[in-house]
Amino acid sequence: MRSDAEEPQRTSERSTLRRQRTRADQRTRLHHTDWRPHRSHQLTRRFQRLLDGAGVRQVRFHDLRHTTATLLLEQGVDLVVIKELLGHAHIGVTADVYAHVRLNLQHQAINTLSTSLCTEDQ
Fold it and tell me: Is the same domain home to 75 and 93?
């Protein structure tokens, strides 16, 4: 059974833990607690610190958009879906920016078809 004297101490400990967790979250979070985005320079600094802490080579934050779009395209995700995720106003923007990826995918598709047709003949 707990004494009444222990309760303020437990409350204080919980409070301290909550503050420490909040500070740790703020160091790794890429947005404010109310979900407003950080200013671009703040975001860049936080992102670079996260990369440093993870031992990952430095890349620009914006490069993540291109990496994401490229990986999604290579996995067969529809260009319209990628356009929406990236926030492009027109599909033409997405198609133009990622044309090189689409060309590689077309070459792969042709090679796959060729292999399939050659295998069936034998």
Answer: yes
